[in-house]
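Quick log. Single chain, no ligands specified.
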Amino acid sequence: MRIWSLHPEYLDRQGLVACWRETLLAQAVLAGRTRGYTSHPQLERFRDAPEPLSAVGAYLNGVAAEADARGYRFNRTRIDHGEAEGVGSLIVTTGQISLEWAHLAAKLLVRDPERLARWSQVVIPKPHPLFRVVDGPIASWERARAVA
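-> predicted structure:
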């Protein structure tokens, strides 16, 4: 499961669709509709939110907005809390953003080198709209390893 802290605009088609599907799965886990993935580490940041399902809804809305911008049609009726206004923001660290940026670059190098080239001048990537960046190390829940 990869629920990116990066802004969805950076994701290639495969990454955007996978992020949508995986976040829908995370929503199902948090809503108690599935027994799988209940211990997945990326769910920690949503579980720590005051309203976990609203936070996931806000995240899904951000992914759907990017899909809309690209002319894709993600079914927003699948978002349990689609009206997730006023959720606030979740925290993501600079270390986490840097790790994810390197991780995404490695994926784009193989899957979509043109997209990677488009973003090659970005030094500090934007986070997903749900997140606010603060200085800090890689998140404790992260299982991906830094790219050398």
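The longest strand covers residues 90-93.
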